[in-house]
Amino acid sequence: MSAESLLPLITATGIRKTFGPTVALDNAQAVLYPGEIHALMGENGSGKSTLLTILAGAQPADTGKITLRGQELVGLTPAEARRLGIAVVSQEPQLSSALTVGENIFLGRLPTTAGRVSWREVHRRAAEILAELQLEIDPRAPVSSLSLGRRQMVEIAKALADRPQVLVLDEATSSLDEADTRTLFALLGRLRAAGTAIAFVSHRMTEVMEHADRATVLRDGQYIGTRLLSQTDEHELVSMMVGRDLKSYWHKAEVAQGEALLRMVRVSRGPLKSIDLTVNKGEIVGLAGLVGSGRSALLRTIAGVKRMEAGEMFVNRASVRIQSPRHARQLGIGYVPEDRKGEGLVMHWSLYRNAGLSRVAALRALAPVTERIDRAAYAKGTEGLKVRTSDPRQAVSELSGGNQQKVLIARELAISPELLLLDEPTRGVDVGAKEDIYAQISALVQGGMGLMIASSELQELIGVCDRILVLFQGQIVADIQAAEASEEALAYWASGAHLIGAA
Questions:
Q1: pLDDT, tens only, 20-32
Q2: Distance CA 454, CA 434 (A)
Q3: Alpha-carbon span 190 to 212, nearest angstrom
Q4: Distance between CA 494 and CA 426 in Å, rounded?
Q5: Could you give the CA distance from residue 80 to residue 12 in angstroms, rounded to a whole number?
Q6: Which of 202, 406, 423, 462 has its CA 20 to 30 A from that of 67?
Q7: How is the chain split among helix, strand and coil, in percent rounded to 5?
Q8: How far apart are CA 424 and CA 211, in angstroms?
Q9: Concatenated DSSP letters for 61-93?
Q10: What is the pTM of this model?
Q11: Helices 234-242 and 431-446, interaxial angle, to 10°?
Q12: How far apart are the first and last CA of the chain?
């Protein structure tokens, strides 16, 4: 039975929401049916997350109407939404790192016996939910010990603890690798078959086309349209989102490669085992692999966040032992970490101040930090990046995710690096901002820069890179020309399938 033959489970119509003079939503709408996966799409700033928070009761709409099974919901609160069977998974995990996985899953509704919390029951029930997600996570493990991707899966487990009838996921896959993403969508498929209404926000077009039944597009806070995915394609959806056709989306440049910028010979450190690689001037090298494969560990070693323990490293033919990020920058190496909020940006500082951080690190001790330095760094770093801001003196926390990411990249470009390391450069970034970043990457490599890009989006690696290294359990197991690569081939090596049947 198709969704259209059923009555809607939850509807939002005529939704308007303003924040001071800013209109976040204007006559927006969404209709969710039971047994359906519905994608909510649009660029950063289109109003997707605002609409989801209104559906979750986290904030009220100025005008408009929300109904659940035909009954209007008035004065909806998060507690009431949860009681009614509406669960929301945020883009950033809302977890307490000091508590265990099980305690986080049942936080605020811990089971009790005779007035006392039954910790055995907490962890038993948490283990059941984690098993449904096919996650091998100890419910007694502290959340602080988990990777960002694992924390996101715990956040999803927390939402499922109440067996919701409406499940809303805001960029829930942005920090997941391919394996966890497949696990999540397999679960969503089972929930859909059981009649759950599911809405999800994703900037990954392949996820939408493969898993969603319908898609609703917002642009500048307004409802643009809803499409059956069986009757449309990604080109129409992208045009609806940005109001124009995106041509040459990847901005791949044909560049003559120069001499080696970086060479690693049998480098080991922590999870990394005997790494051999070369990155040349004018070359983009991609890093593929599952969570824990060593992608981020490799970039952090090159960037001086962690020191290598064995092997040799050469930068511009000179043997080096990088001692710190400051040392790496002195050698011409820029690094954009995966977690832009936790490791990259100081969220309450201005765009100017954040952009100037890399230059400040190069100053001598006790040298004065002036606004002139920050302004010059911002001007240099943002050239070509199209950062959208009303005033560079505003706090970076006030920007969309895409613009925050551009400021983080600008911070490193301000020092004019010869080698730029990018860890998940488009995580949580909309399609328009992604295109801006890809265009900048193309311009940089045409200028002779070398780049290394770690990404969980295999399509991105194939589209942007010249060559892709696949890591498995801390080792490089494949070196594939991007022109000859496929998602299936990369997944084969990343999953360890090449070891099946090996002697």
A1: 877 899 999 999 9
A2: 15
A3: 13
A4: 20
A5: 17
A6: 202
A7: 35, 25, 40
A8: 22
A9: -SEEEEEETTEEP-S--HHHHHHTTEEEE-SS-
A10: 0.68
A11: 90
A12: 49
